[in-house]
């Protein structure tokens, strides 16, 4: 960003204003009016716009994939607010890359519409039923797939799932809307489509398939069989650190001379590794940096356990110690040491190398990415929804460690810190506002666990058999006692000594 750009009168982002944007800002070189849709993406948050939408935009810049434009969709109240902001600026997004040494701004134009957000999902079902839509993609967070965390099985008893199974034509979930549309596509001969998860889940395509087929089977077993047989669900690994947008990010866009109601900032790193399993065609994302491979699982394990797991390792103690950001956590000598020691000693031994990257090199890469001072990623955002993230990001490493006779003391410390965090106060006495869909339940158990740590481990839906593993449960009880008695920093220092 230059001083000249900063002083330029800001242009309200829209198709009409693209030509008037300040110099130095990349913008669509393709004719957006000539784009036609091929993808519906449900969950149009910051990550989608900085990652999947960006890859497609870059492909369009090469003169390709103009029949694969994105239509946004959502099923929550927050999605309706995002829809209003994006439609007001022709679904354009300013995406600002924050390298420690520089910044770069780009306007992404691969999304062309955003469907109305409705209780019965009528518009979403109708759109997904159209022949030109060949991919439905999803970013709904790790906990949004109606999966029991302990068993990994589809939670068919959830109230939302029960509602959709009893009201298949007017569903309330994204999955119910997709099932309803697939019923129309089957009955009218339009045919199947690809359902593509873009969330941080191991075997995310398999999880998507389990939920979709499981829901369909509750109301229409023959449709479930058709979906299972005809549709495709590619597994993928997605990676880019993308903070939430607040006043700081809005000001960054203004500094570039852009009036954008929903700008996105991200680090100077992206990765997208995809299984090439698309029943109705796909864009050639590999021409702009994505990688198609049959080794997705190994990439998933490395990223989810070291990056996503590492995020939990540092954000939970960061919350307790009133460290506001992830880069701030990495500047804290105790928290950063905790990350490196746990990653090297307790996570990496259970992670395979992937082409051009060993676990040790990946730890160094993540350490650098977490330390980027320009990325204002809050500990609160990263620590959100621990009841979904810990089972997916931390507990698999604990299970592997126990099975192989390796230490899990550091990971037990992280779980103890999470239990202490859910008590709802930081060590300086300030209040931690509810930060999990199950916060009230977690807080009640966390306060009881101060006297009886096994109360916390008794959450079978999270810990399952781990509560009976003394290698973990004894260490958890020890660290929880230390944290309550001596503080989080003392516990970290004792572990790292």
From TrEMBL:
Residues 38-286 form the Mannitol dehydrogenase N-terminal domain. GO terms for molecular function: oxidoreductase activity, acting on the CH-OH group of donors, NAD or NADP as acceptor. Residues 296-480 form the Mannitol dehydrogenase C-terminal domain. It comes from the Bacteria. Keywords: Oxidoreductase. Signal peptide: none annotated. Coiled coil: none annotated. This is Mannitol dehydrogenase family protein. The lineage of its organism: Bacteria, Pseudomonadati, Pseudomonadota, Gammaproteobacteria, Oceanospirillales.
């Amino acid at each position: 960003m230059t001083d000249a750009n900063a002083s330029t009168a800001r242009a309200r982002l829209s198709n009409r204003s693209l030509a008037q944007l300040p110099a130095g800002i990349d913008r669509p070189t393709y004719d957006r009016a000539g784009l036609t849709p091929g993808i519906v993406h449900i969950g149009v948050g910051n990550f989608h716009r900085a990652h999947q939408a960006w890859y497609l935009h870059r492909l369009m810049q090469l003169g390709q994939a103009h029949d694969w434009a994105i239509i946004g969709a959502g099923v929550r109240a927050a999605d309706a607010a995002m829809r209003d902001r994006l439609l007001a600026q022709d679904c354009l997004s300013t995406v600002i890359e924050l390298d420690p040494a520089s910044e770069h701004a780009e306007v992404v134009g691969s999304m062309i519409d955003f469907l109305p957000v409705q209780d019965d999902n009528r518009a979403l079902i109708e759109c997904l039923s159209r022949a030109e839509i060949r991919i439905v993609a999803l970013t709904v967070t790790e906990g949004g797939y109606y999966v029991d965390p302990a068993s990994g099985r589809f939670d068919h008893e959830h109230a939302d799932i029960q509602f959709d199974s009893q009201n298949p034509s007017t569903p309330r979930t994204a999955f119910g809307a997709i099932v309803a549309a697939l019923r129309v596509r089957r009955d009218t001969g339009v045919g199947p489509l690809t359902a593509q998860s873009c969330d941080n889940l191991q075997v995310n395509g398999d999880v998507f398939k389990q939920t979709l087929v499981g829901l369909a089977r509750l109301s229409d077993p023959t449709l479930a069989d058709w979906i299972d047989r005809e549709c495709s669900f590619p597994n993928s690994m997605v990676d880019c650190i993308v903070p939430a947008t607040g006043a700081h990010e809005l000001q960054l866009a203004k500094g570039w001379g852009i009036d954008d109601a929903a700008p996105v900032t991200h680090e100077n790193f992206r990765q997208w590794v995809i299984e090439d399993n698309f029943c109705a065609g796909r864009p050639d994302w590999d021409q702009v940096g994505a990688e198609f491979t049959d080794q997705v699982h190994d990439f998933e394990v490395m990223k989810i356990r070291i990056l996503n797991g590492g995020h939990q390792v540092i954000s939970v103690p960061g919350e307790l110690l009133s460290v506001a950001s992830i880069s701030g956590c990495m500047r804290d000598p105790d928290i950063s040491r905790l990350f490196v020691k746990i990653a090297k000693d307790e996570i990496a031994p259970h992670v395979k190398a992937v082409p051009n990257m060993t676990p040790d090199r990946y730890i160094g890469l993540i350490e650098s990415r977490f330390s980027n001072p320009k990325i204002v990623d809050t500990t609160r955002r990263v620590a959100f929804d621990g009841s979904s993230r810990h089972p997916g990001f931390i507990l698999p490493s604990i299970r592997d460690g126990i099975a192989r006779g390796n230490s899990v003391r550091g990971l037990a410390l992280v779980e103890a810190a999470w239990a202490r965090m859910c008590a709802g106060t930081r060590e300086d006495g300030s209040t931690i506002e509810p930060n999990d869909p199950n916060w009230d339940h977690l807080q009640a158990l966390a306060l009881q666990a101060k006297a009886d740590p096994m109360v916390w481990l008794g959450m079978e839906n999270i810990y399952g058999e781990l509560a009976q593993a003394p290698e973990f449960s004894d260490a958890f009880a020890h660290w929880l006692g230390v944290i309550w008695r001596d503080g989080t920093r003392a516990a970290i220092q004792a572990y790292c000594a």
